[in-house]
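Q: I'm writing a short explainer about Amidohydrolase family protein for a general audience and would like to include a description of its predicted shape. Could you first generate the structure from this sequence?
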Amino acid sequence: MHRAGVALLAGTDATPFVPAHGVDLHTELRLLTEAGLTPEQALAAATSLPARCFGLADRGRIAPGLRADLVLVDGDPTTDITATAALAEVWRRGVRQAR
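A: Of course. Here's the predicted structure. Afterward I'll give you a sentence or two in plain language.
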């Protein structure tokens, strides 16, 4: 599908049981890269592409005036997608979240 130009969106259904909400997204990103996407494409599948596909113009990218939902990780997920699991800090709507 990806080779045919279909936008792949990352995201798993979360239930009260499994997968754990949010945690399995890191696994999904890894699996997307194992399936042939670059780390950048996998990151877009979890950020800008869902925002665009669902008409959420205020998020999905880092730009002035957009909603500031950000994660800071230890490592470079553009070269090693598993770095997304090494969360250092989280911001929601521009407010740093307590751990």
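A: For your explainer, you could say: The chain has a mean pLDDT of 91.
Q: Perfect, that's easy to follow.
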